[in-house]
Amino acid sequence: MKSMGVPMRKYLMILMAITAISFPSWSRDEKLNVKVLYTGTISPPEAETIKGGSWFKKFSMVHPAFFIQHPKGTFLFDTGLGHSIKTQVKDMVWWARSATKFIQKESAADQLKALGLKADRIILSHAHFDHSSGLIDFPSVPVEVLQEELDFLKTKNASPAIFPSLFNEQIVWQTYTLENKSYEGYAKSRDIFGDGSLILVGMPGHSPGSVGLFINLASGKRAFLVGDTVWNSDGITKGLPKFWISSKFADNKPDEVMTRILELQALQKKYPDLLIVPSHDAKAVGAFEEMMNRN
Predict the structure, then answer these.
(1) What is the pLDDT of residues 258-288, one digit of tens each?
(2) Can you give the pTM of this predicted structure?
(3) How many CB atoms are closer than 10 A to CB 240?
(4) CA dihedral 177, 215, 42, 255 (to 10 degrees)
(5) How do strand 189-191 and strand 198-202 relate by DSSP bridges?
(6) Which of 277, 273, 268, 263 is nearest to 185 (CA)?
(7) What is the enclosing helix (H) or strand (E) of 61?
(8) What pLDDT score does 3 carry?
(9) Nearest to 161 by CA among 225, 56, 265, 252
(10) Phi and psi for 222 in degrees, rounded to 5?
(11) What pLDDT, on a 0 to 100 scale, did the predictor assign at position 16?
């Protein structure tokens, strides 16, 4: 049998190199798991969550933290409502306090302690109170945000949903940057563990440093945690923003938020099986929890 020619050997070497680069190290033998930690609930009229919604129909909302377990480490994506939330919200401007009529549940810190679990770090989708209230419950855990979000939360009167009592000097802030690598239509991204399983993308609008998290399971199932770009999943399917007063309270740049909504709408049409999860939509979060329980 003749030995393999040089051109063929070079071709195979290049092919092997491309294969090694193209396929992530994530495999079916490794386990990615996400636990949804419910820290509170609230049921406003649907009309407060989406333009044109009903004032006579309640809409179930939740305040979750997402505990993510990966073979290379663990982290919380948001903290939900923390131990001190009832005290913290006293700093909120009076006209915005309808957002605090929630039913508080066990904090993420207490739930993790009861489960014997520990987060190596916390990554915030954004810094609003219902996502960052629990930071002070994790005094030694690094908190990762984009520089734009850190600057925003340190700006006086930046948002009615951000106030001084949410943060203290014990919080270990760490900033990161998104790479100029496009992912699913988003210009910049961050592959958290370098294996394609957990991808952060920039979603400015709701706040300057808002990010979303793609979760890609070895089974082929996928989810996209999109923070507060919308509160109600119907906002994506119908291409509608929040109620105008809700947007005034919550959205830093409503025009940018609308752009993000249309991007999500296009993404959902492209990938009908992709589960897009607004953080406060109880039905969507429940569907995500069920997906992870079946993983």
Answers:
(1) 999 999 999 999 999 999 999 999 999 999 9
(2) 0.89
(3) 18
(4) 50
(5) antiparallel
(6) 263
(7) strand 61-70
(8) 45
(9) 252
(10) -140, 150
(11) 41
Strand order in the sheet with 211-216: 189-191, 198-202, 211-216, 222-225, 275-277
User: What are the structure tokens assigned to 37, written together?
Assistant: 């930690």
Compute the distance between CA of residue 132 and CA of residue 76 in angstroms, rounded to an integer. Answer: 11
Residue 95 has a CB neighbour count (10 Å cut-off) of 10
**Which CATH number is correct for 30-293, 3.30.465.60, 1.10.1240.10, 3.40.50.11220, 3.60.15.10?**
3.60.15.10
Contact present, 276 and 224 (Cβ < 8 Å): yes
pLDDT for res 30: 65
Low-confidence ranges of the chain (pLDDT < 70): 1-30
User: CA–CA distance from 232 to each of 27, 42, 131, 186, 229 (Å)?
Assistant: 33, 13, 17, 22, 9
Give the separation between CA 276 and CA 201, rounded to whole angstroms. Answer: 14
d(CA 183, CA 201): 8
Cβ atoms of 134 and 82 within 8 Å: the answer is yes
Check if the beta carbon of residue 122 is closer than 8 Å to that of residue 76. Answer: yes
Task: Tell me the per-residue pLDDT of 185-214, one tens digit each, with 9 for 90 and over.
Answer: 999 999 999 999 999 999 999 999 999 999
No. of H helices and E strands in the chain? 9, 12
DSSP state, residue 191: E
Rounded distance, CA 44 to CA 177, Å?
Answer: 36
